[in-house]
Amino acid sequence: MIAIVDYGAGNLVSVKKALDWLGQECAITSDPGQVATASKVLLPGVGHFASTAALACTGLQSAIADSIGRAIPFLGICVGMQWMFERSQESPETLGLGVLDGECERFPATVKSPHVGWNQLEVDGSSRLLRGVPSGSYVYFTHSFRAPVTGTTVACCEYGGRFSAAVERDHLFGVQFHPEKSGEIGLQMLGNFCAL
Amino acid sequence: MLTKRIIACLDVDGGRVVKGVQFENLRDAGDPAELAKAHSASGADEIVLLDISAAHERRATLLDTVRRAARQLFIPFTVGGGIRTLEDAAAVFSAGADKISINSAALADPSLITRIAERFGSQAVVVAIDAKSIGGAAQWESFTHGGRTAAGRDAIVWAREAESRGAGEILLTSMDRDGTGIGFDCELTRAVADAVRIPVIASGGAGGAQHFVEVFREGHADAALAASIFHYGFSRLVDLKQEIGSQGIPVRWPC
Q1: How far apart are CA A90 and CA A66, in angstroms?
Q2: Cβ of A194: how many Cβ atoms within 10 Å?
Q3: What is the CATH number of domain B5-246?
Q4: Whether the bond into A108 is cis, omega within 30 of 0
């Protein structure tokens, strides 16, 4: 069973719908116990980085950290991916999970923010999550902060400079865009995650 | 490169699409779920469903329509029309919408924008502005209730306020151009797009590919929406996007 972690921020129906479409057994849950027994953990997230503080208060963060420690595949989407980093300029007092090095930052004033719409991926071919996803593929973004390009970056995007569109290390995966809203190519990535 | 979005709009009354869009091979050309799926397959970057039903008892029908359309839709899906409260919005999100669009209710109580944005994120809140030119000068007034009631608010001032209250996008319809097919109001679109930092979706007046090129280039629009353009020679969105792309506008291609 794939746990879709609900920490009270935003609308998780779209992610659930996409996994249902792929024929995956999944549940939206805010129960740390259910996260602890899941075969995979998916952390969506929209809105403000500060809302991730709820993860620490509810016991969900320790359940997630524990499951990552047991090598259970984890996928963070949008703010869920940003939370994998150490922190974000959006809410400096809120700590991320810190499994990836770096800080999420705002877009430069030279471009409109938020970054909303379909933009292209520059894909590193070694990614398991992006298997079968060619460079130049379009995916749907909507965000005001972005993760830096680091050693774990497996896809970059260009908007006021390059940033991490997808990150991957062992069984940890994160995407800044919304695979559940990115048409066939997004479904393929979710399918890749489910098949791990 | 970030592309300009081409958004297909479905006007729905009592669970049926009323401004017909011609697709071949559809069992039921008035079914919003089938049309939404066909638009997506044809290259739409996003789907907007506007419920124009007046009657309150039709809300249950709308939620059922949204649920059916959302089930097979994996691109952004916005639903508007008759959303007056946070609870209305929550019901539409639960049915599968990614964004809601509000107009009259936001003008009546602008705090609604903030309340929905705090719960669901700004990216989920589209404020729709129906603007009409007044007095010939570069000035536009906002209208509510399907364009029947003047709100007494300057469209540019209202767009700025909507942004500051947490709107994620502005859906800007030119009432002067709506349904004419003579092109978007580039002057209006540019005035609003330059006044805010959030994306502006131009609407009203699309009649051909050139109109989209103009509203992106001269109107500074981030996205453009159309419903009935398919009556004007483009049977498929994919042809429209190819034509727009060939004139140097970045579009998602191939879709």
Answers
A1: 26
A2: 19
A3: 3.20.20.70
A4: no
Mean pLDDT of B227-234: 58
Which residue among B74, B94, B121 sits closest to A18, beta carbon to beta carbon?
A: B74
Provide the Cα torsion B194, B198, B204, B209; round to 10°.
80
User: Å from B99 to nearest chain A CA?
Assistant: 10
Query: Closest to B121 (Cβ–Cβ): which among A46, A140, A187?
Result: A46
Residues of B in contact with A115 (CB under 8 A): 2
Cis peptide leading into residue B254 (ω within 30°): yes
Mean of pLDDT values over A12-26: 96
C-alpha to C-alpha distance for A143 and A47, rounded to whole angstroms:
8
Q: Work out whether strand A172-175 and strand A162-169 pair parallel, antiparallel, or are unpaired.
A: antiparallel
User: Domain spans of chain B?
Assistant: 5-246
- Do the Cβ atoms of B199 and A120 come within 8 Å? no
CATH of the domain at A35: 3.40.50.880
Q: Render pLDDT for A128-185 as a digit per residue (tens, 0 to 9).
A: 999 999 999 999 999 999 999 999 999 999 999 999 999 999 999 999 999 999 999 9
The pTM (predicted TM-score) of the whole model is 0.95
Report pLDDT for B231.
46
Instruction: List CB contacts (< 8 A) between A10 and chain B.
Output: 120-121, 124
Segment 25-44 of chain B within 8 Å of chain A by CB? 40
Would you place residue B233 in the very low, low, confident or very high pLDDT band (cuts 50, 70, 90)?
Answer: very low
Number of domains composing chain A? 1
Mutation test of the interface with chain B: which of A111, A112, A182, A187, choosing the one with the most B Cβ atoms within 10 A? A112
Q: Which domain holds residue A43?
A: 2-194
Please give the pLDDT value at position B57.
61
Q: What is the mean pLDDT of residues A43-66?
A: 92
Mutate to test the interface with B, among A7, A79, A142, A178 (most CBs of B within 10 A): A142
